[in-house]
């Protein structure tokens, strides 16, 4: 009945010998259904021996108990099976969480290499982090200066609140403030990591939640720190890209100025050639006519000719 209602079952205790469906058939059906394949299952049987025990365990039973048994033994087996099942669920959850963490870090690094703009990377990082970490808000704040109020922010949040100012200029790896209420966040617990660029604090990555559980798990802290590192890399990448574009603009500007200078010089040279050519012709005619020139005048003519030749060369 609980299975039909979709309710969670802590454990199924079944006898092998049942009228309509024996315990083995029930176990097979439950293990073939994704909704019940991980439900703890204990088989009870009057058949002792290794073969019967192995058969039940091979079909997926968590334990096999042979009659007769005491109530204390049955209770101990049930508790042990449920405890082991809870541990398996927790291990599977941690494994899924670890995989999600790796995928998030990889996703951010791919976006950095893909050349996405910094605002796009920040929004994507906060959105993906919000899906994994249990919180009511993820925010990324950027300082105008370390000693100024916090500037613009990116992220996903449950309300339209934001930090008004900050007196912090240094921060360790990952800090969280449990069991406290922050009026700007409306949260009972805040976790933050500094975003570093050029050995200075560029801003902060913050998560907050107002649930009864205010402690952050080690995996959440690790993911938060790794995400902060990736965001810091994205900030550095964006800064280098902007510097590269700025340098390219300077190079193109200098090249354009050089071409303009060359063109001006070429035009000036062309404009000077015609009058200088006329002067050179006049000097040659002067020498050819045989006018009686003084020594000083002849020296002056030679100087003018040499200067004209240099200008025309």
Automatic annotation (TrEMBL):
InterPro entries: CheY-like_superfamily, GAF, GAF-like_dom_sf, HisK_dim/P_dom, HisK_dim/P_sf, Sig_transdc_resp-reg_receiver. Keywords: Kinase, Phosphoprotein, Transferase. It holds the Pfam family Response_reg. GO terms for molecular function: phosphorelay sensor kinase activity. Signal peptide: none annotated. SUPFAM superfamilies: CheY-like, GAF domain-like, Homodimeric domain of signal transducing histidine kinase. The modification 4-aspartylphosphate is found at residue 15. Residues 1-82 form the Response regulatory domain. Gene3D superfamilies: 1.10.287.130, 3.30.450.40, 3.40.50.2300. This is Response regulatory domain-containing protein.
